[in-house]
Each structure stands twice: as C-alpha cells, then as structure tokens.
Amino acid sequence: MLVYPDGSIEGTIGGGHLEAEVIQAARTAIDERCSRTLNIELTESYGHTCGGRAFVYIEPILAEPRLVIFGAGHVGRALSRLGRLAGFRVIIGDDRPEFADREKLPDAGRVVILTWKDALSDIPVDDNTYVVIATRGHAHDFQVAARVLETPARYVGLVGSKKKRTALADFLKKENFSEAQINRIITPVGLSIGSVTPEEIAVSIVAQLIEYRRLHGPVSVGHSACSGSLS
Questions:
Q1: Contact criterion met (CB below 8 Å) for 91 and 65
Q2: Using CA atoms, how far apart are residues 87 and 65, in angstroms rounded to an integer?
Q3: What is the pLDDT of residue 48?
Q4: Radius of gyration from C-alpha coordinates of the chain
Q5: 89-132 per-position pLDDT tens digit
Q6: Residues carrying CATH 3.40.50.720, the chain
Q7: Which CATH code fits 66-215?
Q8: Considering only CA atoms, which of 85, 90, 114 is closest in space to residue 100?
C-alpha cells in the first residue's frame, strides 16, 4: 500500500481500523523521515475475531539529498566531486562565469552563475538540503549565510577559521539573528582530521555531511538512522 503525505492511498491492506492506524503511522514516518514497524494484535477492536498478529513495515520514500555549494573555487570543485560520490545531488554556484563553468564541474547536477546578494533567488533550499558556503571572501560568505539562515536547510556549513566564526556571529547579531539561529552554522566546517589541501578539506566536509545525514534521520530509501518502532 502506498500512502501519500495527505493520507490518500493506492492499494490496500484490508481496510478497517488496522489500515487506518497504518496510514497514520505512515504519515508520521514521512514527517520524521524514519522507517518504522507496527506490531498489532488483531483483536475485536480491529474487527477481527480470529486473533493473531499483524506485523507491518513502513518505509518512507524520500528525495535524494541536495548539496548546495556556494563558491566554485578549489574547495568547491573538490567538494562537488566527493559530494556526488557520497550520494548527494550537487548544485554549485559562483558569481564568476569562468569558475561556474559546466566543463570544470562535471559532477554537479546544476551549475549556477549568481550574485551573492541574491544567491538563493534561483536555488531551492528545503529541509533536505545541505549547504556549504565557500566563497572567495568574508563579505560574500556573510551575505550568503544570512540568506541561508532564512531557509529550513538541514545543514549549514561555512569554510573558515575560529576567528572568522566570531566575525560572522558579530555580523549576524547586527542583522538581528538570534543566538539559536547563529548556532545553526557549523564553522569551521568539516570533521577535525588535520586537513590542509582542498581535497582533504572536501573529505572532512563530506564526512560531516554523511554524519548528519545518517545520524540525524534517513534521507533515502533503504537507509535508516532511526531505531524506534511502534508496538
């Protein structure tokens, strides 16, 4: 049985109270991005007199996660390659046409020439989007960060130092962002593995993306970071 987010269905598992409970559990699984199981005693309250038990497995079918990279420099290019290998649909943008070049970014699903002020005008960002900001300058980074914080992006990372993090926080406070909003931004971005080269930095970032993807809820069929079930 296929259950849509609004509760409509295709197919059936027999109707009645059992099916109604499964539909509600499926809608919850979609919202929480978690597969789950139902273990139901088939008592008279479910319209059954013969007893027994129904075991129902629910798997949400969710979109491929999107990785949006702002900045097509050395780190952005390396991150585009590794992000695609890790299963992300990559969108990468830059304000320099010679960098936002499809031939130089063959792993990106989409390459966008943009302005930093309106960086999100043509790039959709939802709660299945992971954003990495790696432009060529602090001012551009901060502009983009402010816009991204207005979205429900699942992950927001910014390439930079601890000193840059302090400057970013000061900038965002002046823009009236709350402490909780500012704390959404991960900077320095990536896992601490002593990375130096653009490729190593990209490895550290992708490792962190995988950590968030797998440990903060599944985002694709067949992979689940959730352990809960219903009985």
A1: no
A2: 8
A3: 62
A4: 22
A5: 999 999 999 999 999 999 999 999 999 989 998 898 998 999 99
A6: 66-215
A7: 3.40.50.720
A8: 114
